[in-house]
Amino acid sequence: MRTRSQSRRRRQQQTPPVVVENFDLEEPIVDQNIVAMADNRTMAQMLQAPIEGYEDAIVVPPINANNFELKQPLINLVQSNKFTGRQDPHNHLRFFNKVTSTFRHPEVPNTSIKLLLFPFSLDGEARDWLDKEPPRSILTWDDLVAKFINQFFPPSKTTYYRNEIITFFQKPNETFNEAWERFKGLLRQCPHHGFSELHQLDTFYNSLNSNDQDALDSAAGGNFLDKMPQEGLAIIESKSKVRYSRSRANDSRVSTDAPLSNSSPSNNSFDMRFSRG
């Protein structure tokens, strides 16, 4: 009579072994030259700092022009307005483009000059950012601008300014000129807002108080929005050159000797004074 333990041993002996074929795990091909080189180095040599990996992030195309060099006065001018990461990056690019446009070489593309000069325009946090970018990761001027803007003008900031533009309204005590300058300032702070000229003019017109809307309609000889966008912009710019001062209850512009009149203008009226350009 077979015991239970004897039956278990008999089944284990009869079970065929499982063969696992692994076709994916192949023996790596070892470069004997690399192994030999590693083996021939001493521990001191292995512990030395590497001599590679110190290339700049910006790749400047080869310049084969004769007698080309960046003059020190140009570098000094670029460095006179360094970007540290705290200022408006768009304003920095405008300044940098203006400065670099003054230097031209017939055999050197202006974009190459910009790639060479841009690191000189950075300092502090901005310089640290560029130093931490992967080596040879910026190949063109467009690459550099895109990375620069994305770093110092993140998408959340773009969303904020887009909302400010969409929901823009003239403040109660704000003149037409002040409102227009503030609106243009928002557009300038976020030049990639994506709104067409038509959308901008429509938003600004509908943000105005009724008096200023009527003034634009009058200047347009009818409905302001019936004009072409370029005509509408010209009307707004012309009107913004006229100085308006809103009369306020606490701001008396009438001579103290003059009697008060019931026909005096309301708080929403304007005293138009033409400024000479």
UniProtKB/TrEMBL annotation:
Q: Name one GO molecular function term.
A: RNA-directed DNA polymerase activity
What are the record keywords, sorted?
Answer: Nucleotidyltransferase, RNA-directed DNA polymerase, Transferase
Keyword Nucleotidyltransferase listed: yes
Q: Where is this region: Disordered?
A: 241-277
Instruction: Indicate whether Transmembrane appears among the record's keywords.
Output: no
Question: Superkingdom, according to UniProt?
Answer: Eukaryota
Positions of the Retrotransposon gag domain: 117-209
Any single Pfam family the record assigns to this protein: Retrotrans_gag
**Which InterPro entries does this one have?**
Retrotrans_gag_dom
**Name of the featured protein:** Reverse transcriptase domain-containing protein
The species this protein was found in: Tanacetum coccineum
